[in-house]
Amino acid sequence: MVKTDGDGNEEWSRTFGEAGYDGGVSVRQTSDGGYVVAGRKEIGGRECFWLVKSDAGGNTQWDKTYETPHWEWNRFCSVRQTSDGGYVAVGLCYVSDPSLRFGGIWLVKTDADGNMIWDKLFSKTTRYIVWSSVQQTSDGGYIVAGTKAEAGNDYDVWLIKTDANGDKVWDKTYGGDEWDEGLSVQQTVDGGYVVAGYTRSSGAGGQDFWLIKTDADGNKVWDATFGGTDGDCAHSVQQTSDNGYVMVGGTQSYGDKGGIWLVKVE
């Protein structure tokens, strides 16, 4: 974890973890000025879900690992502080044995000290689910974006709305006959949602940024693709102050055929 000043100059850096395959995937500043990091930690040859809470100087205050029985590969992909001072994190879990291969999206709610309050598992699919994102919604529930994978290349964007206890209220899928993924979700000012990821089912060819706008019930209002003939993938989306959207991800279509691509839309 690296902290910089406003000009991007490093102020401090910290490392967390021990021998093994440990990594951080998502970080957020917390209301006390510290930070919470979500990722994975290797224990006994298994990947475990991992949260680390630090103070404002990056010094560890607590770290917690979480396991789901019989699942071998586990990692948090997104973490947010919740209105009660606790945390919500979402990640992926799956079994690697070819005869048992299936995966799911795991949603975890903790208190302010990282102690689990509840957890929910969504889906057991026949293919590896690639990524997931979570945000607390204005009604106290949660919105989760991920990917639902079935046989062949039928990967679809998957949007799940839950209540405050993590129980599913509704879920929707979006996509065509090819590989489509949802990597980031935000609630919008009108109470709907915006999802960013990529699509191979439509667009200019190859793989394109895909932006989907829904209403409050997850019904698609519109969608748009951005990209060239090679591989382009949006990893994060935010609504902007002018009610447009900004996305960032990777591109192989522009520049030197490999770089970060920032896109602003109305």
Question: What this model shows, in words?
Answer:
By secondary structure, the chain is mostly beta strands. The chain has a domain at 12-129. Helix content is 0%, strand content 58%. The chain contains no helices and 21 strands. A 4-stranded antiparallel sheet has the order 3-4-5-6, with no helix packed on it. Strands 7-8-9-10 form a 4-stranded antiparallel sheet, with no helix packed on it. The chain has a 4-stranded antiparallel sheet with strand order 11-12-13-14, with no helix packed on it.
Side by side, the strands of the main sheet go 3-4-5-6
Give the radius of gyration: 18 Å
- Estimate the strand proportion: over 45%
Largest sheet: 4 strands, antiparallel
Molecular shape:
globular
Distance between the termini: 33 Å
As residue ranges, the low-confidence spans are none
Please bin the fraction of helical residues: under 10%
SSE pattern, N- to C-terminal: EEEEEEEEEEEEEEEEEEEEE
How many beta-strand segments? 21
Return the average pLDDT rounded to an integer. 90
Give the helix/strand class.
mainly beta
